[in-house]
# Entry
Amino acid sequence: MSEQYDVIVIGGGVAGLSTAANITEGNVLLLEKDRIRTEEKRYLRFTFMDSVERLGISECIIRRYDTISFQASANRLDVEYNDFEFGLIDLGKLHRKLMKYILKKNEIKEKWVVVDVKNRNKMIEVKISHDDTIEKILTRYLVDASGTSFLTKKIFNLPHPDFICHCCEATFSGGYIGDPHTITFIEPSTRFKFGGSLYPYDKGDYSFGLTNNLDFFNLSLKSFEKKIMKEKNDLGLSDKIEGGDICVSNIDLVPLGSQYSLIFDGVCYVGDTVGQVTPWMIEGVRPCLDASIMCANAINAALKQQEKSLLERYKKGWDSTYGVVYNKVNLAEKWNRTNEEWNNSLKRMMKLSKMSKKLFLRYLKYDQMSEDAIERLMELKTSLDK
Ligand SMILES: Cc1cc2nc3c(=O)[nH]c(=O)nc-3n(C[C@H](O)[C@H](O)[C@H](O)COP(=O)(O)OP(=O)(O)OC[C@H]3O[C@@H](n4cnc5c(N)ncnc54)[C@H](O)[C@@H]3O)c2cc1C
# Structure
């Protein structure tokens, strides 16, 4: 390990790996406190196919769906697409692919924990620890992609994402699959306040992500897991799954949609650490990948032209795609809806789906919406909320 780098990236999740892979200028070191998660089919996430194709990572898709179905307690909306709009991405495979890119030119250190960061004469000093060894290294720019540890936000006392919800990943093994081409999004029911996505990923297996939106700060992860296990049969899934057993594989926190401090004093924030997750679908992979490319491009420009202020391009890029929508929608308010509002939201979806398929998809995706489209959505929301 050398003592000085142009860029240090903290975190070997999809945000950190993709940022490091897209930095083409200077020398880069990526630090991951554990092992990078590369296990095949262990970390499956649904995503939108157009982005996958645009980003050239189609080989990481292990399944495609051509129908989506929304389900609230009493209503249901099926939207069919002829082209595959949704796919299941194998994050382990994507991580491996990104690691390969990085290692062509740069360094990855696993099992090294970043423990402190300080500004020192136009450079950033990063203190790292491995077993009993502590080292200090310098860098021109730092990328914090440390996810929900919010590492440098804590160190610099910056605001964290406003809203954090619990997310659980469960697998139903051996159950009967209703329709293997359909991905279902379930809105929190009035009784359980859980929402989630359900998708078949293998013969006889369903994967199910569940989110608890409302009790966010009051519920420990342990009690969340307990609640899920207890309520699994009552979540409106019985028409989709018959038999099978549930296995909870991963429970974690997901921060949603904050717009604070994407850049602070030579440090760029990417991914979960700044809540770059879409509020409706708790979808983080695509926004993480998009943000990481914007961030890497800004760092490339700053390094090439030796001009720190060019980092601002990252914030501008984000604001002109996702940011404008994330900013307009008051997220905490949106997630803290009453029971009636939850039920009304499906009706809103139905109305939207009739407006235009394109707008409906953009509503789900929160990206590249025109001001005009946002205004129409806001008007629709106001009229339905009355
Ligand atoms: C259960 C669950 C289901 C989900 N389902 C979907 C889905 O279906 N579709 C979708 O698009 N999104 C989904 N998401 C969201 C998506 O997975 C995340 O938004 C995305 O993976 C975040 O990536 P990241 O790189 O920002 O963070 P992470 O993957 O958390 O990576 C952060 C990394 O930083 C490392 N790190 C932390 N602190 C330090 C330190 N001090 N030093 C060194 N390294 C450090 C951590 O070990 C970790 O590897 C889901 C999330 C969860 C929890």
About this structure: The two ends are 61 Å apart (CA to CA). Residues 10-16, 31-34, 45-47, 113-114, 145-147, 149, 151, 167-169, 197, 209, 250, 252, 254, 271-272, 277, 282-286, 288 surround flavin-adenine dinucleotide (CB under 6 Å). The chain has three domains: 4-39+92-161+257-328, 65-84+164-255, 336-385.
